[in-house]
Amino acid sequence: MKRFLILFICLSHQLTAQDLNLKGFTPNYYQTGNISGGLGYNLNVSSISSLSETIANKEYPSGQLHFVAQLLLIQKFNKHLTAGVGYGYGNHNIFGLKETENRYIGQVGYLHNFGKLAVTHRLRYEYRTPKNLKTNIVDDASILRYQTYFTLPLYNPKETKKGFYLSASNEAFLYLKGATNGPVSAKNGVYEMSNLSEDWAHLSCGYNMSGKARVELGYCFQALIRDKQYDVRYLNLAQLNVYVNLNWEDLQSWWYL
Predict the structure, then answer these.
(1) Which whole-number Å values give the CA distances from 93 to 98, 106, 182, 183, in the listed order?
(2) So what's the pLDDT on residue 185?
(3) Residues spanned by the domain of 59
(4) Which residues does UniProt assign to the signal peptide (predicted)?
């Protein structure tokens, strides 16, 4: 239940004046594939943009808040267990506070089923080095992220690879060390009880077009403790996810076309 703590506490603060309740959209592109044997890759490019809002007589203009691209090598040990390492790059513009960020990533994943429901657990460690572009100061942060991801097909996977499905997830962020040079990857724990500062949840409906591609439309919610006074930034986002599977052989054939 710890991973839901931040959501319950944040919801109790939604009416306070310093909290930010923003709306926006987030497109995400995911590309996965096999390289050789059990070794594969995972490419993810995502963006978060907010709509303009006026809160407590202060204007928050529309624009892109976050852009993140990351590439991981994934080793599949069996049909349940995977591990991966990789690198990510972030570009952030939080209402004029601009930072870039390097992310060094290690993770393990475990997949199992409850009947038709597929459940994936992912534990990820990230070492981040954000740079404040105004002061040119670089700091570092260490973060553990735990995600539970649920997928429920609305078709019979034994008969067809095409059809609609539902998906939902929750991811909690445990800040072992936060950056102090700006708002990106800063540590603002929930009161003095925990280092949890951030939580993401999503609910969507998708269509599996084949074994090579699928698309999802849904809702994504973020609760982020944004300062030491425990003021919260809420993001309510329309979400578009596109998933493509391309193996190394497919990429090589494209190169020689």
Answers:
(1) 4, 26, 11, 10
(2) 84
(3) 2-255
(4) 1-17
Give a three-class secondary structure readout of the chain: CHHHHHHHHHHCCCCCCCCEEEEEEEEEEEEEEEEECCEEEEEEEEEEEECCEEECCEEECCEEEEEEEEEEEEEECCCCEEEEEEEEEEEEEECCEEEEEEEEEEEEEEEEEECCEEEEEEEEEEEEEEEECCCCCECCEEEEEEEEEEEEECCCCCCCCCEEEEEEEEEEEEEEECCCCCCCCCCCCCCCCCCEEEEEEEEEEEEECCCCEEEEEEEEEEEEECCCCCCEEEEEEEEEEEEEECCHHHHHHHHCC
Q: What is the total count of domains within the chain?
A: 1
Model confidence pLDDT, tens digit, residues 192-211: 444 567 899 999 999 999 77
